[in-house]
Amino acid sequence: MKSPTNYILTALATADVIVMLEYMPFSYLQDKGTYYYYTYNFASFLIFHAVFTNAFHFISCSLAIILAIWRYIAVKFPQNNQDWCDESRTKYTVVFTYLFCACVCTPLLTSMKINEQEAFQLSDGTIVLNKTLIRNMDNITNFTIYFTNYRNTIFRDIGFYVYGIVLKLIPCILLVVLSTFLVIELFKTKQRRKALHADGSVSKLLKKKLNQKQADKVKQFHRTTKMLLAVLLLFLMAEFPQAMMGLLVPILGEKFSEECYGPLGK
């Protein structure tokens, strides 16, 4: 069924599926014991993977926020919902969200670079970076490895602030605010409905005007709203811990990144 809500949900699901599909080759190729892991092409792929997944994940969060706004308008201003949140405006909003989120993630791309370093491959395929650790110097292959790193600490901090604040924390705050407003409006709507049914004359008048089909439509509307509210809360539960971790990296420094952020990310 075509509707603004379904358009947003479809775009959100598409972004999540794209992230999962892109993660499959990354998970398969991420083997430090193989030679191609240290090639320039794979280093370039790692940068692409980092920016690509964050961009589409941010798109999912932004679409969840738009979904909350659209639903709040439907509950708060039902008489204007068809005009303010029509299909055409929803489609343009979805397209703009995809483009805008991709641009926001640009600092993540500019903060990273590819470094090169001399390495040694033993006869059994083991790769060693420090030549002094090699006991048997026979059958050693000398080659250059490539790996990703931040340009400097300033770019690293900028990248983590963009990740922690823009991509994670701000969406979490907006989801909390919008979810709260949505719950309040649902409660107010329920109270108004109780007040109408409390008045006998009004109740009879409503029974004449509203048939069973319309009553079921109202119930379905509120069920859908509650379901979407649950989706927003799940997004919040998943995003808030990541926001805190992203903010702690530039605050606590490299040691926290190596001992906590990196292992948890893996």
UniProtKB/TrEMBL annotation:
Every G-protein coupled receptors family 1 profile domain range: 1-266
PANTHER family, sorted: AT19640P, MYOSUPPRESSIN RECEPTOR 1, ISOFORM B-RELATED
Protein name: G-protein coupled receptors family 1 profile domain-containing protein
Segments traversing the membrane: 7-26, 46-70, 91-110, 160-184, 227-249
GO molecular-function terms, A-Z: G protein-coupled peptide receptor activity
Homology family: Belongs to the G-protein coupled receptor 1 family.
Organism superkingdom: Eukaryota
Organism: Ceutorhynchus assimilis
Keyword NAD on entry: no
Subcellular location(s) of the protein: Membrane
PROSITE patterns the UniProt entry points to: G_PROTEIN_RECEP_F1_2
Lineage: Eukaryota, Metazoa, Ecdysozoa, Arthropoda, Hexapoda
Pfam families: 7TM_GPCR_Srw
Main location: membrane
Record keywords: Membrane, Transmembrane, Transmembrane helix
GO cellular component term of the entry, any: plasma membrane
Keyword Cell division: no
